Each structure stands twice: as structure tokens, then as C-alpha cells.
Amino acid sequence: PIPNLTDPHQPILALKGIHKRFGGIQALSGVSFDLRAGEVHALVGENGAGKSTLIKIITGAYLPDAGSIAVGGSEYGGLSPLQARQLGIGAVYQEFNLLPDMSAAENIFLSCPPVGRTRLIDTAARARQAGELLARLGAQNHINPNELAKNLTVGEQQIVEIAKALALNAQILIMDEPSAVLPSRDLDRLFEVIKTLRREGHGIIYISHRLNEIFEL
Length: 217
Hints:
4-stranded parallel β-sheet, alpha/beta, 217 residues, 7 helices, single chain, globular
């Protein structure tokens, strides 16, 4: 069952004493980390500090050698990628994972397309629901759900990636250096999207080396 991620009295995500070693390299040593609903939590560190390893443990790509992960108060020794998605954990990486010759709507619902009574994909419902998600992110006026991904700007593609995570009911959203791929004109739009998600009660882990962005958010 999906845990309760709206209880204000406990973190929606809590890592305790996480260790991870790769051969002779100790990537993580006793890391503890809390994230609450409606919080943007910055994660900062130089290259090799273990940020990517920590994120891969949260998303289920790696299992920790020791420690525990609690989501909504339910504790786990480690997660699989499927478990992480089912528990409401999503990630948006620097390198987007969109299919260029599919529309924004098709990409958003690639893993969970709405199905009609005939058990076929309901394309009208998919376009409508994609439009609703894009509207939540303030993008209804500049992203057409039927536009091919390859025709979107980098900033628009990033918003589609965020909408993909929301389509899978992500309440915990990890953003890995999201501004690194954006031209400066798209930064304000990204910040507005993040502030909208925070107001909705999502917990956001924001990875960046740009301290001015972190203090602004």
C-alpha cells in the first residue's frame, strides 16, 4: 500500500545511517537525511561527494550496504525501482528520457496510459489529462500536448519530464542539476514550477552547485 505522505508530523522520506561501498571506495558513510512535505531540500557537494549514489539508493537503482529508508513512516532496508515508483518517488535527470518522435502526451503517459472500455489506449483522455498536468505546472499556454517532443525547447522538455513523474503520482521529486541544461530565460519558469509543486505539498530534493538558486528556492 502507498504510505501516507501528507502527515505533517513526520518526514515523507527519511534515510538513516546509509552506507554504500564500491570495492575500496566508501561512497556513503552513515548518511541520514529527512525530507518533509512542502519542502525544497537542497543537496550540495563537490564531484565525488556521493550525491548520485544517494539518489540512486532513494530511487532503487542501488541497494544500501547498511541503513534504512522510510517513506511515509514505513521502513525498508532498500528499494527496487518499481517499489520506489509505487511509493511515489520520481526523478528528473539532466539527460531527459523522452522519445523524440512521440508527442508530449504520449511521453507523459508512456508508463501509465489511460485505457478505455475496449482495453485500448484512450487517446482523447490521454491528451486531456496531459493538458491538465501541464496546466498544473503553468505550461498550458506554451506546450501543446500533441506536439512532438523533438519540437519542444529544452525548458519545455524538462516540464514534460516533470509531468511524467506527476502522472505516476510522484510525491517525492528529485531534481538532479535541473538548471544545468537550461538557457537563462527558462530558469524563472523552472522556479515557478518548483514553487507550485511545493505549494501542492510535494517534497523536492534539489541538487545543484549554484548557491544563488538554492537560496532563491
